[in-house]
């Protein structure tokens, strides 16, 4: 793996996004706007905002990076540039490394911006350390971009890729415990929720925001989330087939 | 650089089947270094599939392809082979310069090389233009520039001159000739017979089979024709009579 080619790829992706200011603004500003909406929609019930604010902080980067990464990779596939990259010395690992680096750094800025709005003017209280929340947000964004890269292999058009959001992301959001506590779900759904990585992201951030001890379950959450990222990257790498029929 | 007695590309009994139908049927070719090798045939004859197979992008059913002594698709060939696919395959939201700089970094070429290839394809005035605002012919030239970046020993060009004005076409053929004279293997596909006469060696493909191969002069002689278009028709008819 050559750092030079990883950096070149990450740089190229970031320049592409810079040339598309509308996408950039959406990625950076929309989470803060939604956070503000959440705060004032429940203006009489601060408890709801206190409960769901940290969760949203970790889940926004996931969804945003999922969409951006899957569309970028899909365009790479359909536009013929992926094939051109296959004929260059670039390795699959370097390509995916470049994607992770580019979207990971976007996610850091996005999560940082959303966190500073939520914790500052919106007055969200987080009992635990900020780094733990941001770390969870970063991990879930990396997971989002690597799952997006993987799933883009199963879309032929951008329409289909966008449909993966309701098809793959919404079920995870519904089952991760944000809307309904997981132990009050039907038993089957509760089991399924154990297999979905976002469940652990949500569990982790709620522990941090409630000031729980950052060991035991939090470490479990961190480990599950951190190992889902390489698993998704490997799955994504398997979809990058140089030789096509 | 490949020596004249060792072929740049050697293809032996190449068979490609796609969804049950045969796309390339027992194709064997020796493509020496230092020549312009023309791949001619109507659309659907298997030209693109053959070029993709040489690049290691096509799954092959049987047979073998060796490029500069390595198996086609070997990663070490990445910086020795330049490929220009039929579709431009560029990043539309990047400028010409940004596209070339990215590909140059992948093949480990300095920024100065970017200026050289832009000069070669006559695209210097469009350096700062976004690729999706260019015309089809301009995009094709940028795509060719990407293929030229690594100073390739093998250049595989899939219909490189489609949609170009005659002056530019003349200029690019001059470039191809210069690369071949410097020892590179240049493979050009085309369905325009007028371009065939500029090649040193020709292969006529039809329905995945090699109908005829040889220099333009020898093909004319064999067909007893005065131009390559007539020769192509005569050779196809001859092959069909033999098959019947």
Describe the 3D structure:
The complex is a heterodimer of chains A (245) and B (244). Chain A has 245 residues and is mainly alpha-helical. Chain A has one domain. Chain A is 76% helix and 0% strand. Chain A has helices at residues 3-18, 21-41, 46-78, 81-86, 92-119, 130-151, 158-175, 187-194, 197-209, 217-238. Chain A is globular. The two termini of chain A are 28 Å apart. With 244 residues, chain B is an alpha/beta fold. Chain B contains eight helices and ten strands. Chain B has helices spanning 47-54, 96-106, 111-120, 136-148, 166-181, 193-196, 216-223, 228-243; strands at 7-18, 21-32, 36-40, 62-67, 70-71, 81-84, 154-158, 185-190, 201-206, 209-214. In chain B, strand 7, helix 5 and strand 8 form a beta-alpha-beta unit. The model of chain B has no long low-confidence stretch (mean pLDDT 90). At the A-B interface, helix 1 and helix 4 of A face helix 2 of B.
Q: Which pair of protein chains has the largest interface, and what are the residue counts?
A: A-B, 26 and 31 residues
Going across the biggest sheet of chain B, name each strand in turn. 6-7-8-3-9-10
Radius of gyration of chain B: 18 Å
Oligomer: heterodimer
Number of helices of chain A: 10
List keywords for this structure.
heterodimer, A: 245 residues, mainly alpha, 10 helices, 76% helix, globular, B: 244 residues, alpha/beta, 6-stranded mixed beta sheet, 4-stranded antiparallel beta sheet, 10 strands, 35% helix, 26% strand
Quick recap:
Chain A has one domain (3-164, 230-239).
SSE blueprint and pairings:
The complex is a heterodimer of chains A (245) and B (244).
Chain A: H1 3-18, H2 21-41, H3 46-78, H4 81-86, H5 92-119, H6 130-151, H7 158-175, H8 187-194, H9 197-209, H10 217-238
Chain B: E1 7-18, E2 21-32, E3 36-40, H1 47-54, E4 62-67, E5 70-71, E6 81-84, H2 96-106, H3 111-120, H4 136-148, E7 154-158, H5 166-181, E8 185-190, H6 193-196, E9 201-206, E10 209-214, H7 216-223, H8 228-243
Parallel strand pairs in B: 3-8, 3-9, 6-7, 7-8
Antiparallel strand pairs in B: 1-2, 1-4, 4-5, 9-10
Helix pairs in contact in B: 3-4, 7-8
């Amino acid at each position: 793996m050559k750092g030079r080619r990883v950096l070149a790829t990450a740089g190229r992706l970031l320049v592409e996004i810079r040339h598309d200011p509308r996408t950039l603004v959406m990625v950076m500003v929309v989470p803060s706007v939604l956070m503000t909406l959440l705060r004032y929609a429940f203006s009489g019930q601060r408890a709801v905002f206190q409960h769901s604010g940290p969760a949203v902080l970790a889940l926004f980067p996931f969804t945003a990076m999922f969409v951006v990464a899957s569309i970028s990779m899909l365009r790479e596939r359909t536009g013929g540039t992926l094939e051109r990259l296959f004929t260059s010395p670039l390795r699959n690992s370097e390509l995916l490394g470049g994607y992770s680096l580019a979207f990971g750094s976007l996610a850091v800025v996005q999560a940082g911006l959303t966190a500073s709005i939520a914790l500052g003017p919106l007055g969200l209280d987080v009992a635990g350390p900020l780094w733990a929340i941001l770390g969870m947000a970063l991990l879930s964004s990396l997971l989002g971009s690597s799952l997006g890269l993987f799933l883009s292999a199963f879309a032929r058009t951008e329409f289909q890729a966008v449909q993966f959001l309701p098809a793959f992301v919404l079920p995870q959001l519904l089952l991760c415990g944000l809307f309904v506590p997981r132990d009050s779900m039907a038993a089957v759904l509760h089991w399924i929720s154990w297999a979905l990585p976002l469940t652990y992201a949500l569990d982790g951030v709620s522990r941090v925001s409630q000031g729980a001890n950052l060991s035991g379950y939090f470490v479990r959450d961190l480990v599950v989330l951190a190992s889902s990222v390489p698993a998704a990257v490997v799955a994504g790498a398997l979809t990058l087939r140089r030789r096509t029929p | 650089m490949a020596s004249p007695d060792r072929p740049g590309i050697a293809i032996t009994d190449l068979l490609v089947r796609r969804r049950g139908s045969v796309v390339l049927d027992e194709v064997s070719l020796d493509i020496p270094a230092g020549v312009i090798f023309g791949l001619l045939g109507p659309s659907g004859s298997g030209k693109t599939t053959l070029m993709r197979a040489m690049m290691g992008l096509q799954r092959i059913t049987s047979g073998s392809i060796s490029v500069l002594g390595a198996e086609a698709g070997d990663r070490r060939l990445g910086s020795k082979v330049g490929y220009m696919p039929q579709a431009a395959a560029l990043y539309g939201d990047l400028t010409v310069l940004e596209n070339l700089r990215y590909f140059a970094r992948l093949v480990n070429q300095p920024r100065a090389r970017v200026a050289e290839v832009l000069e070669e394809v006559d695209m210097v005035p469009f350096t700062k233009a976004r690729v999706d605002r260019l015309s089809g012919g301009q995009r094709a030239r940028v795509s060719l520039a990407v293929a030229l970046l690594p100073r390739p020993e093998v250049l595989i060009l899939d219909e490189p001159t489609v949609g170009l004005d005659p002056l530019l076409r003349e200029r690019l053929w001059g470039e191809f000739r210069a690369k071949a004279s410097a020892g590179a293997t240049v493979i050009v596909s085309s369905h325009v017979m007028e371009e065939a006469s500029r090649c040193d060696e020709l292969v006529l493909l039809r329905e995945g089979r090699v109908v005829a191969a040889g220099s333009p002069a020898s093909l004319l002689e064999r067909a007893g024709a005065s131009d390559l278009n007539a020769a192509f028709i005569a050779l196809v008819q001859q092959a069909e009579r033999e098959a019947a």
